[in-house]
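#struct-help
A.M.: can someone run this one for me? Single chain, 495 residues.
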Amino acid sequence: MSARVDHDLVIVGSGFSGIGMAIAAQRDGRDYVILEKADEIGGTWRDNRYPGCACDVPSHLYSFSFEPNPYWSRAYATSDEIQDYLLYCVEKYGVRDNIRLRSTVQRMTYDEGLGAWHVTVGTADGDSYQIVAGAVVLGVGALHDPVLPDIPGLRTFQGEVMHTASWDPGATMIGKRVGIIGTGCSAVQAIPHLAEDAKHLTVFQRTPIWVLPKVDPAYPEWLVDAYEKRPWLMKAHRAKIKAANELRVLAFTKQPMLLKAASKAALAHMRSAVKDPELRAKLTPDYTMGCKRITMSNTYFPALARDDVTVETSSITSADTTGVTTADGTHHDLDVLVLATGFDVSGSYRHLNVTGLEGHTLEADWDAGIDTFYGVTVPHYPNLFLLLGPNTGLGHTSVVLMIEAQIGLVAKLLDARDHRGATAVAVRPQVVPAHMEQLDQRSEHTVWQAGGCSSWYLDEEGRNRTLWPGSVVEYERKLAKPELIDYEFTGAVDR
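D.P.: on it. Structure tokens below:
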């Protein structure tokens, strides 16, 4: 490789996607660098550290298949434990020396003549520099770019305001009047902890959430020892979890009525903790289970039933220096306002200022419609790959499985490019419309679109642009043996 290209591969982001891609690049002998905007690796599990933060996928499935962890402390790991796992992977595989922290991608421009990307990187001290990369992998994730509510007067509020994704570790709620906006997954985990400390907690609920009991036992020491000494036992446990979760996909994608039994269990779970019929009515969803992400908690409903907790279903219309006012005219005096208002799932891509072939910009193309090929490649952007891109999220099992399948595809495409003596590989624009149409058709009758709710899974037109409308096994099979005719290989290596 000549001096005109600095690195064979630039990886943006250092969560599961970025770290997994880096380990694969090392395995394949590729020169790479990871650009991370924060001061430490970790992505979602570095940023989301609110009280009670944990994964809702079983620990032994929410980890790399090539790096099983016998030391998980319980069935569902906390954010701290997952972050520690990623830090361990970074050190074990020698990735640390290739990471540039506090390095923000300011813009990326494709050089067709060179078959490479010019990546402008901003540093913590305000300077910038450029890297020329043979390929770029965007592992920027979707669960860290907070959505902030548009509440008139919010800037005038003199109390504390914090989003669950940017939690102040020194914050205390003891003796304070706390409000929390939202009742999604983050809120379900945080609310019981906030209720324990707050003088009074007001939960501003727009839509009730389906909540199932959480079976989350701590792993006894003898089992941890068994997994450490007999890795095949741990592998079998992981396979069992994967198979069980895969069975759920039918209910989400083709037969939502199969969720009836789970819905009855969730309602019984609520009734056992909430005796007040008026409160139960507020907390009972009127949409099909699975339309929004299903949550699990044993403490959420007991917290909402406390005398010092109020569930407010009237929408917030404005804020002032001392609190917020709801549509029914009630003013709620607050010391702290917590925003559990979710994430902009495409925002991370919009902010990178990516320019591809013929003046195409990722931001404009995203606004026109999020069209990708299996969520990994995008027309008009050669040598650019997304990990956990559009339509590759999951509602029923671990996204780490999807990440590994995508990393495998990226490796295969780069190998095919190099083997052919080309400088660039890109998906053929002609194949993408049919692929997107198929995704639309398959999503039309899923619970996410036909379940009677609106969620962050859907775009402004109500189309699913977040989740894969099928099984992981199907996705893995399609990416394991890609049809190379769907891709075009251009240029000749002279760099």
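A.M.: thanks! Residues 399-419 form the longest helix (21 residues).
D.P.: also worth noting: The chain has 16 helices and 21 strands.
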